[in-house]
Amino acid sequence: MNDDDRALCAATAGLLQASGVLATWGLALSLLSGLVLALTGRSLPSAAWTAFAVVALMGLPERYLALRLRLDAALFDGLARDTIPTATAMDRALETLGLRRAADGQRTLADRVLGARQLLQRHGFAVVAQTIVFAMALAMQDWK
After folding, report:
1. Three-state DSSP state, 46
2. CB crowding 52-63: b at 16 or more within 10 Å, else e
3. Domain boundaries, the chain
């Protein structure tokens, strides 16, 4: 791996690590929604109850995406620091862990970076959707 590839891996790892702020916000929204449902669920109008439940349930795929982003950040960091010598070695390790199929084939570094960015975008969309539905739930609390 040349210096440009290492720099790309380091920059990608940094970008993915920065998404931790979004992950914290998504987790907070899920926990707050669950807490609201647990403490005041019976007194909420059905529209607000449903909206809080949707936010809490949206936390499940959001947590999965956050986990994947943390894993990808660590993998790109390993490539940048040369603790993972090559993408092929990384693929073999992922196959051994059962996280990748051997039949998936070899991907270029550019494809891997693009995939990580798309994962980051999906996570961002999930957290934005959670935020919007949470705001709607707050607005609907007083509806009777």
Report:
1. helix
2. bbbbbebbeebb
3. 3-140
